[in-house]
Batch of 4 targets.
Target 1
Amino acid sequence: MIIQMHKPKPRMEELDFLKCVFITLMIAFHLAYIGDTYPVAKQLVYTFHMPGFLLVSGYLFNVKKPWTAFGKTLLWIFLPYVIMESSYTVMASLLPVREHIDHLTAGVLIDHIFLHPMGPYWYLHTLMLCGICYYIAFRKPEGGFSSALKQEKPLLPTKMMSWENQVLLGRFTLFALFLWLLSHGCGLLSTANAAYFLVGAIVRQAVGNFRQAFPGRWWTAGLLMVWCIDPSHYDKASFAGACVVFLVISSLLWVYQLGIPQSLRNLFLFIGRNTLPLLLFSPIFTILAKYYQPLLLRIEPTGMFFMVVSVVFAIAGSFGITWLMDATGVSRLFFGKEGLNK
């Protein structure tokens, strides 16, 4: 197989749809009652929702930016991350939450910000570390060294592997080595999470077309249902779990091709374009959900009504906060731009 470099593709609506599904499931199963009441469903969802998110993130991550632009991108991920992770850690020391901290110190706070993040903010921590490794590994040399590299003879015969493919393979080897060092050597990354980001990057650089890597066919949905009969497959760090991720993504791409009403489709895509505010602010509303939980469970004891109300509350509340930040100009200081992508 010949591996070729591909130029960045225009925005795919399907990816926004995937992000919408994954972020909605994240909010739903961050409700403690739902996770505790439906542990098998939680185990299944945790097998694919954040791995899928990381895979899409690896595919979309832009490593063609100059250093200055890349630094700004990192800054506007790091700043809201630090603010929200710090707030979440302080809150965990004050409220009787599951991740309660008994004795909050400056050292504990620094540890959670830079080494062991709490809550859903670990995703941003992982995104930044993986993104830095990706960028460094794929950053093209400049000046005389770049010209010399182009003129250097291939290490292998052209018929076996082109020089460009050798370079690409070398870059991915370096990228994987960086991730391995951060996961096994430093303990800063989950190996499984880093692997899914790496797979997304491989799909982008080696395949180029996300739809080719994940064919949206009806049979993937059928195979997914059969594969999920066995709960032993619910492990994102296993081959069986990776198959679940592949089948879920392919099945969702097939679902997107069906006749979804345009108004509903627009809502899904809007949510998918604005997952960062949901990731940042939804924990506020999932914590508040505990206060009205008993009332809604008396109305409908299975918890489904409670889940739907809470997810809608979290999405609307998160977007409401972001809208206020946009209206007051705070978004420029927090996100570096408007918080909501229209």
Target 2
Amino acid sequence: MTSLKNSVSKNVKTKVAGQTQDDVVYCHIFDAILEQRLPPATKLSEEALADIFSVSRTIIRRALLRLSLEQVVVIRPNRGAVVAAPTVEEAKQIFKAREIMELAITELAVSNATKAQIDECRKLVTKENAAFDHGDYGSGLRLSGEFHIKLAEMAENAPLLAFQRSLVSQTSLLIAQYETGSHSNCSLDEHSILLDAIESGDVERATELMQEHLDHIRSKLNLDNSSTSNDLHVVFSDILKNKG
């Protein structure tokens, strides 16, 4: 059983210009979910998080509310917040929504992507590759999620971007809960080839590649299994270390 303190982030974010304390806390928890350091059903104690981040419980509540609106955290009346643990039926619905969203995003990205955005995505794929090569599955998964969020930015459609952030993090929960077999990355070449199609302006090829990519991810999920939960205090250990 791990604890919340050690589960926070290996790369502690610091506040940057324009970021509020709410933003910093939100980003840490969001990344911890993407990296599967906060697995489904983990209890998110306001008291523990307030201590870890050295902020008020009011700030923690606002960050958790924001995550609940993205459907990756569930706030239970009188029982506190937990990381969402989708049921099999919910998992199927999430993945279907992801499929519809990604195909629309890909089509728009072909029309709107800039050279600079594509170059940025290629650098992200390189980092993703390096993370998996070094056995850092959590970081690799987070970078893979960031790749898909960057595609949504290319689409130049704010509502799609907001939905994509939620669906990417929800998909990370599905992978944590339902993935079968060993952790292995199968998407690196798929990401690069997809970028090639987007850069060439080939809508049909790009959407076809995205569908294949999503099918590949879906094929690794066993929607008959469930997973265990964790507690909070290992996830954010680096933040606590930096407090001293």
Target 3
Amino acid sequence: MARIPATLSLDRVIEVANTLSSLDLHSSDVFDPRFYPPKNVDVETTYNYFLAMVAIDHRTNIDDKQFTRRIDGEEFTGSDLLWRLGMEMFNRDSAFFSPTNLRRLDPAVVRDWLVSDYGPVWDYGVRAYLLRDVGSYVVGNYGTTIRLFNASGVEDLIDRLSLMAAYEDPVRKKAYLLIKFLALRGLLKVRPQEMKLPIDNHLTRIAYRLGIVRLEDWVLELMRRSMHFSRELDTELRLAVRDAWDAVIRIGKLDPIAIDDFLWRLGRTICIRDKPQCDKCPLRNACNAYARGLFINEHNHYLTYYY
């Protein structure tokens, strides 16, 4: 019999849901010109940009190699820098993100775009492959992104996206991230129950620390030994985390998009990997790790472009 790696803790879910429901949560500005196209850009060009940028939006910092740069007096790092560079490219040539261009994209172009003198992003070749695959898939099957997104519903859209390498993750991190952006831009109608959180390192780490997901002892032992988790085990754990956040959202009657934005910011700035700043955390009184003084990080997984 297969061993279950994690279970939901209902009492913790309820406490976290109640705490989150007392906070004033809001979604991010998806029209911020530093990262995203302006409102007056046509629909197809907007689709092209988000489909491509989400496809390459996975881990940028590896070990001591920091993906960071100062642009116009402001420092950007990680995903923020990736999207900032995306808009620099968009402002130079928005057609760069069209499927017809992406399908024949030279990896050297991606290297010059994402590495230059301030990187390095650790896998520009992989990101070039993902972008080429996006372009080839869209052109070969739909012709345009407008036809790709002309799906019968969210599940149909996810099925279509999952046939591209960038979106094949069974936990659908990038697919739900893309859906979130399109919903906030008013380009996709999504019912709250259709929206799942795009589970990444931050949301996983926060779920473990809050205690809404209870890890089995054998998993904790693997984490203690800094073992690399298989893709199968990683998937099982992230699905458990996604289910736990889904329960939090349902019980607290919360906006899933606002919750995702809040948790992502929390994980990047406060509930960080090595030295969480609990004195600044609005969830500390509902946090199992804070109460016990024992903080675990996300599980150690093999490098992947899934998230």
Target 4
Amino acid sequence: MKTIAILTLLPALLCAETSSTPAQQQKAEPNPRIDYPGFVQTATDLQKVREANRVSEDDFLRMMGESGTVVLDARSKARFDEMHVKGALHLDLTDFNAPALEKLIPDKTTRILIYCNNNFKGAERPFPAKAVQVALNVQTFINLHTYGYRNVKELAPLIEISKVKLPMEGTTVTK
């Protein structure tokens, strides 16, 4: 009988332990270094800008060869080392901050070409697919704009790695 009583009360106890009221949620200590509403507003404001700056593989390839353009890879160093667009600069998204970006790309008017895991298929180790809502291109685009870089172009298509026109290099690239 005690077992039945405990099993009957267990769901209620678990719910009481994990649930919180709106008043309790608002008591969370504020952090002046985190602005979620500002992030959401920035993402909303940049939605049309980002869409207008997505480019084909052919345009990406053409722009790569033009003066004043850099290719930036914001994936992890391990994934970058395995395979990346030839000549790309690397800065892990987790290391984005004003000093690191200014050191890597001092001129904020520089054209920056970005790509991510979700642009390539058929090379799952260096380019593991991310959930589409958190594809690295979206985060990288928003971050670069937030830091003042306005000339950002994003590789648009999903490309089979065996058919890619972009020059690739890294430890997993076969010559």
